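User: quick one, sequence for these tokens?
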């Protein structure tokens, strides 16, 4: 069967408060992607729109965007899996192309989180949990991940200093990413200073510096069949080699692992098997670092380190650009910000640019295979995508 390629990627600059409408926001990522792919709207057979709808004032945004972007009368679909929505959209696009139903599909991710207040945003995040049994008790995202952090730190012997090192790495690359929200330097010493905001508690043991920020942004990925990629004269197609997805109990009471995310483990196993590779073959990775502890757990869940040994990677700077397994060398969510529906698409964009040798100052040396780890909710959904040259 025909291979499936990514022939274009793009994103808007991620910002704290976008001044325009959601259609204008989505256009920014779409325009960037279309210029990258060097195609026209008429070349697209179908579109998939990805977001978390509880943050959207517009009902059924897919129809609005299809009209605004000139994608009618082609079909448009809407996909939601919380923070992993746009890599879920990528999997759907792959399936549509692989099956032969469509030849070229656009995956549009977006979120304009500034449309609602911070307190409203936190309330909606809490509703990502079971609204009957958990969220009425005041659960919030930092508190959930703080529970995982407590369990992980106790079992692994890692320390808060190790989590601080992850944020310092994110800042190292976030400062040179012109698409990122947070481009200020962050030093290890800031976490040691009791007066500095980075070290202030949010939900123990997590501190301000351990948490990513909400953002407004959009992303776009163009997926095409091998034949269509050739006919469109795509010079550097990036091939989708492996896809894995998993889910777990929405209630934490139904889970038995708190030092890692089972969905990441299952999704990674599927993706590695489909691609016919092992973790040792991955040259560069993007992981879902909504909190520093999430990146630490990802090191182990993806097989880059043995259980309890993720701290050795960050202590030895092995996840820096020059290390053995570069991770989040675009600054990750911790620097870029987290516009929920656009995040996965932004991660994919980074890996595609890496594999094309077009990543500029953050370019890893000669990568052949890249991996994207995108998590929805508190480890409720997990997608792992493997791409290759």
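Assistant:
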């Amino acid at each position: 069967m025909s291979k499936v390629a990514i022939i274009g990627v793009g994103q808007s600059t991620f910002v704290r408060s976008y001044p325009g409408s959601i259609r204008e926001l989505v256009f920014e990522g779409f325009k960037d992607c279309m210029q990258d792919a060097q195609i026209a709207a008429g070349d697209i057979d179908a579109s998939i729109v990805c977001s978390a709808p509880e943050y959207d004032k517009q009902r059924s945004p897919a129809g609005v965007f299809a009209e605004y972007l000139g994608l009618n009368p082609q079909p448009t679909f809407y996909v939601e899996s919380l923070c992993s929505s746009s890599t879920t959209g990528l999997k759907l696009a792959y399936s549509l192309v692989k099956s032969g139903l469509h030849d070229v599909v656009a995956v549009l991710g977006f979120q304009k989180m500034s449309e609602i207040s911070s307190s409203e945003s936190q309330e909606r995040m809490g509703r990502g949990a079971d609204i009957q049994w958990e969220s009425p008790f005041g659960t919030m995202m930092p508190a959930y991940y703080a529970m995982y952090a407590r369990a992980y730190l106790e079992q692994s012997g890692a320390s808060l200093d190790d989590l601080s090192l992850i944020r310092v790495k994110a800042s190292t690359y976030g400062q040179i990413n012109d698409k990122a929200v947070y481009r200020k330097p962050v030093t290890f010493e800031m976490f040691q200073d009791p007066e500095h905001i980075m070290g202030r508690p949010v939900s123990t043991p997590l501190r301000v510096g351990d948490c990513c920020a909400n953002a407004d942004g959009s992303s776009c990925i163009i997926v095409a069949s091998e034949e269509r990629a050739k006919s469109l004269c795509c010079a550097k197609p990036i091939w989708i080699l492996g896809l894995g997805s998993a889910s777990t109990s929405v209630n934490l009471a139904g889970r038995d692992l708190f030092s890692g995310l089972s969905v990441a483990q299952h999704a990674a196993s599927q993706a590695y098997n489909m691609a016919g590779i092992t973790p040792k073959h991955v040259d560069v990775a993007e992981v879902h670092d909504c909190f520093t502890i999430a990146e630490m757990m990802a090191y182990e869940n993806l097989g880059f380190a043995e259980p309890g040994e993720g701290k050795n990677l960050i202590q030895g700077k092995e996840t820096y650009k020059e290390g053995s397994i570069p991770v989040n060398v675009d600054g990750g969510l911790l620097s870029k910000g987290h516009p929920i529906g656009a995040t996965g698409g932004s991660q994919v964009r980074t890996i595609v640019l890496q594999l094309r040798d077009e990543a500029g100052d953050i370019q890893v040396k000669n990568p052949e295979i890249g991996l994207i780890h995108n998590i929805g909710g508190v480890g409720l959904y997990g997608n792992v995508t493997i791409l290759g040259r």
